């Protein structure tokens, strides 16, 4: 590397650290990470292994992005995750990283389950298998004469909001089947098509043996199938604004001017209860130990109790993993049921046949999976935690449908309701360096409370309407909390993700109508 480039990178590093340090006082979590920060290239920073870290930590960012978006706490959380027992490779933060529970959102961390690797509910999050589904129609924008009326109908017919009212009522046996069979069970109940399953991550099924959940979790799932929920969840009609990779777009069935629908939701109250149950159980195993938390039973010391983890093959580790998979199956079924509600309404309003609304793909972005990866030249059985991160398989992976061969897995990235979302593709062959992972969205830059203080929901709705975006929200505060200004620049997140070699852009999607809880 020439001296000029070395000098330029050093200057960028210093500027990023200086500006990041202006965001507030040093957090006790991951304290001192800035002293170990080094720039790898124009899209990656490394926090070198130090202290109790078991691996380096990688940030998908350039100097400007790191300086503008780092609040000290997220990189500090990433450093903490690298202290988990059995961590292999590097701990990663995608370009949309921000502060989360234990793990940063946008975090990807793998542990060696054949060694002393652990599983941590904080590495998945409370909305288990929160994910995104993209549906393509045969419609163009000029074939929808009254977008406002269509948006209003969808808002009235798609159950949304925190209550879960309007969901499919499931018997105990039906719910148990959903937990065991995922998207296939939803299709059997008439809430989805079996033809969709090949276009769902893991074919819509996380296989396991024990699907026993607490009574409270079962109760919360019995009435919430086919509901959006609240917060950042949505159903959004979009138009393919721009195609930047024609080969991949053709394989995905996308073309400019086409109307699509993006669904973002997860396992609803059932998944939240599963996480709450197991977080409480695991955190109770840890006691304060100076500035750390320790489980004498497992001989594990952690810097943050929210990282509470169990050895993967322990009774507690397996209990969480099995319950998480069951909740993940519920989420696949939930997005399938919402797809069917979408089909029903498009047929009623526009005469669109069910078969003319196809699933492009459905991805998880809050999940832990057992995967094989090559670490320093050796094969490793890993528990890969993706919390606010999307899998991005290469086009030669055996799980993918043949139409994605040589193209890569569709990677679905919702942005914000006033700007754009993106469809990306994984590598054409092979895997990327971040455990075949990519970003999952734009990433918050304002907390919900800060957004409510700065942004008027009423004014925002009028602004979006003037842009031709029809927004309906059940909860008054949601519009302010989910305003475009509360999120990072999604185009910048995509640029960095591409520059880091994690996934490549395929199509930019512009919002038309947005249904939120």
Automatic annotation (TrEMBL):
GO molecular-function term, one example from the UniProt record: RNA ligase (ATP) activity
Sites where the protein binds Mn(2+) 1: 127, 233
One GO process term, biological-process aspect: tRNA splicing, via endonucleolytic cleavage and ligation
Residue sites binding Mn(2+) 2 per the record: 264, 365
InterPro entries in alphabetical order: RtcB (IPR001233), RtcB-like_sf (IPR036025)
Coiled-coil residues: none
Keywords in alphabetical order: GTP-binding, Ligase, Manganese, Metal-binding, Nucleotide-binding
Catalytic residue positions: 440 (gmp-histidine intermediate)
Class of enzymatic activity (EC top level): ligase
EC number: 6.5.1.-
Cofactor stoichiometry and binding remark: Binds 2 manganese ions per subunit.
The keyword Ligase belongs to this UniProt entry's keyword annotation: yes
Requisite cofactors: Mn(2+)
Catalytic activity: a 3'-end 2',3'-cyclophospho-ribonucleotide-RNA + a 5'-end dephospho-ribonucleoside-RNA + GTP + H2O = a ribonucleotidyl-ribonucleotide-RNA + GMP + diphosphate + H(+); a 3'-end 3'-phospho-ribonucleotide-RNA + a 5'-end dephospho-ribonucleoside-RNA + GTP = a ribonucleotidyl-ribonucleotide-RNA + GMP + diphosphate
Keyword GTP-binding: yes
Residues involved in GMP binding: 232-236, 365-366, 414-417, 421, 440-443, 516
Domain of life of the source: Archaea
Task of the protein: Essential for tRNA splicing and maturation. Acts by directly joining spliced tRNA halves to mature-sized tRNAs. Joins RNA with 2',3'-cyclic-phosphate or 3'-phosphate ends to RNA with 5'-hydroxy ends.
Family note: Belongs to the RtcB family.
Subunit (UniProt): Monomer.
Listed name of the protein: tRNA-splicing ligase RtcB
Originating species: uncultured marine group II/III euryarchaeote KM3_44_G05
């Amino acid at each position: 590397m020439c001296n000029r480039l070395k000098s330029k990178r050093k200057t960028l590093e210093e500027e990023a650290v200086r500006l990041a340090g202006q965001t507030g006082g040093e957090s006790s979590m991951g304290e001192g990470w800035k002293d170990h920060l080094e720039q790898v290239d124009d899209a990656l920073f490394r926090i070198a292994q130090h202290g109790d870290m078991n691996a380096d930590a990688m940030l998908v960012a350039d100097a400007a992005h790191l300086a503008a978006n780092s609040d000290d706490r997220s990189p500090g959380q990433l450093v903490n995750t690298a202290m988990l027992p059995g961590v292999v490779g590097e701990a990663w933060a995608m370009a949309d990283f921000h502060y989360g529970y234990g793990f940063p959102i946008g975090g990807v961390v793998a542990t060696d389950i054949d060694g002393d690797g652990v599983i941590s509910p904080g590495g998945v999050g409370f909305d288990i298998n929160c994910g995104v589904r993209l549906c393509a129609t045969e419609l163009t924008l000029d074939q929808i004469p009254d977008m406002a009326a269509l948006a209003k109908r969808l808002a009235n017919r798609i159950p949304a909001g925190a209550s879960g009212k309007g969901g499919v009522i499931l018997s105990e046996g039906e719910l148990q089947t959903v937990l065991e069979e995922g998207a296939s069970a939803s299709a059997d109940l008439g809430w989805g098509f079996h033809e969709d399953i090949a276009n769902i991550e893991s074919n819509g099924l996380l296989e396991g043996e024990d699907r026993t959940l607490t009574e409270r979790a079962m109760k919360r799932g019995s009435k919430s199938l086919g509901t959006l929920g609240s917060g950042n969840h949505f159903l959004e009609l979009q138009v393919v604004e721009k195609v930047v990779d024609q080969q991949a777009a053709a394989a995905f069935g996308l073309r400019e001017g086409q109307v699509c629908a993006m669904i973002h939701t997860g396992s609803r109250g059932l998944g939240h209860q599963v996480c709450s149950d197991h977080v409480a159980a695991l955190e109770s195993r840890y006691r304060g130990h100076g500035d750390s938390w320790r489980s004498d039973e497992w001989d594990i010391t952690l810097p943050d109790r929210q990282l509470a983890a169990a050895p993967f093959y322990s009774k507690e580790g397996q209990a969480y993993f099995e319950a998480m998979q069951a909740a993940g199956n519920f989420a696949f079924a939930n997005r399938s049921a919402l797809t069917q509600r979408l089909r029903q309404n498009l047929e009623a309003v526009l005469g669109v046949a069910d078969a003319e609304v196809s699933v492009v793909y459905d991805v998880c972005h809050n999940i832990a999976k057992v995967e094989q990866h090559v670490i320093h030249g050796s094969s490793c059985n890993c528990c890969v935690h993706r919390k606010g991160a999307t899998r991005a398989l290469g086009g030669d992976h055996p799980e993918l449908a043949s139409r994605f061969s040589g193209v890569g897995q569709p990677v679905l990235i919702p942005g914000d309701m006033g700007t754009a979302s993106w469809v990306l593709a994984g590598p054409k062959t092979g895997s990327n360096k971040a455990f075949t992972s990519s970003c999952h969205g734009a990433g918050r830059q304002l907390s919900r409370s800060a957004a409510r203080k700065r942004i008027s929901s009423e004014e925002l709705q009028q602004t979006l309407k003037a842009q031709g975006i029809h927004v309906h929200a059940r909860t008054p505060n949601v519009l302010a909390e989910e305003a475009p200004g509360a999120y990072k620049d999604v185009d910048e997140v995509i640029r960095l993700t591409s520059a880091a070699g994690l996934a490549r852009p395929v199509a930019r999607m512009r919002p038309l109508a947005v249904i939120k809880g």
